[in-house]
Amino acid sequence: MNPSKKLLFALFFICAVSVYADPVKVYIEYEHSNKNSANKMVFKLYKDGDKYKLVRKLSDSPDETGIVTTYIDITERTVVSVTEKDGVKKGLRSAWDDDYVSLFLQYPVFFRGIPPGKAYMSYKKVEGTETVNGKDCDVYQGPVSILQQSSKYYLWDRIMLRSTAPGYETVSTLINEDPAFTADEFTVPADVQF
Fold first, then answer.
1. 31, 100, 178, 179: least buried by Cβ within 10 Å?
2. pLDDT digits (tens, 9 = 90+) for 134-164
C-alpha cells in the first residue's frame, strides 16, 4: 500500500473511532419536580465512556433511606439495578434494549447510547439552541401534546441537562466535566443478591 493510501486509511480509522467511541467523562446531579409532590427527587448520573451509573432514593420522601443504583454498560448492552434498604442489596439484571422504558421512569433523563426509537432521536429538533447551566443545548420537542403543550428536552453533547413537560421538570443542578471516579465506580458490588 502506498503512503498516501495508508494516510487516508489512518484518517478514516481515526474519524470512525471518534464518531462511534464515546470518551466523555462527566458527573451530573439533577432535581426532578412533579406538581403532585412538594418534594423534589434528586438523582445523579456518572458517565465514563459507554459505562453509566445512576443513583437516586427509592422515593422523594425526605425520610427515605433506601437507595437505587443502576449500572449500565452500553457496549455489553446490560442494565443492573440494585436496591439497597436496611443493609440488604437486591439486584435485577436485564438487557439494555428491553429495560429502557422502566429505566426512564426511574430516572427521567436521556443520554448517549439509548436504543434507537426509544429516545429524543425520534423527536422533532427545534431550531436554534438554548443555554442550560452555561452549556449550549440542542432542543427537542416530544411528539405528544398534553393540553396544547409538549415535552421539551435540552441536550448538551447528547446528554440531557433539562426537560420540561406539563406538570414535570427535570433540571441539572451540578455538572462536573472532570470527575475523579474510583476504580470500581461502575462495578456492581459483590454482595448484591440476585
1. 178
2. 999 999 887 766 556 678 889 898 888 998 8
